[in-house]
Amino acid sequence: MRFLLNSIGSFSPLPALFVFSLGLIDHSIITIGYHDPSPTVSSLLPHSLANQTAIAVVTSNQKPISEISPFTLANLCDPSAAATITTLSVGELMAYINCGGPRMTSTV
């Protein structure tokens, strides 16, 4: 992405105007509050998947903290743990995702 933005100047004498006209910057951001219940995420996932974007996690002052990616949820969350995950807040779900999901148990 950085290469693309840096090379726009070679295609146009006014690169700043054309970045916006190309539609590379999307201003419709999907956000969710840090203390919101995690089932709220599931209602935002279809929109997030359709636009291929992550869901931004924000504070009560609308400052970004992190993001929740549908791809990350699909890879980390075990379907059998779905009921448990719905009892978490968005902040707790974020911590679960950032710690790598459930720990693997070894059989010795």
In short:
This is CBS domain-containing protein CBSX5. By secondary structure, this protein is mainly α.
Q: Name the assembly state.
A: single chain
Strand content: 5-15%
Order of helices and strands: HHEHEEHHH
| CATH architecture assignment name of the domain at 28-98 | Roll
User: Quick check: average pLDDT?
Assistant: 77
What is the CATH topology descriptor of the domain at 28-98?
CBS-domain
As a whole number of angstroms, the C-alpha radius of gyration is 18 Å
User: What's the level 1 CATH class of the domain at 28-98?
Assistant: Alpha Beta
Helix content: 40-55%
Uncertain segments are: none
Q: How would you explain this protein's 3D organization?
A:
It comes from Acorus calamus (Sweet flag). This is CBS domain-containing protein CBSX5. With 108 residues, this protein is mainly α. The chain has a domain at 28-98: Roll (CBS-domain), CATH 3.10.580. The chain contains 6 helices and 3 strands. It has helices at residues 2-11, 15-21, 39-51, 70-76, 82-85, 90-98, and strands at 31-33, 55-58, 64-68. The protein has a 3-stranded mixed beta sheet. It starts with a helix and ends in a 10-residue tail after the last helix.
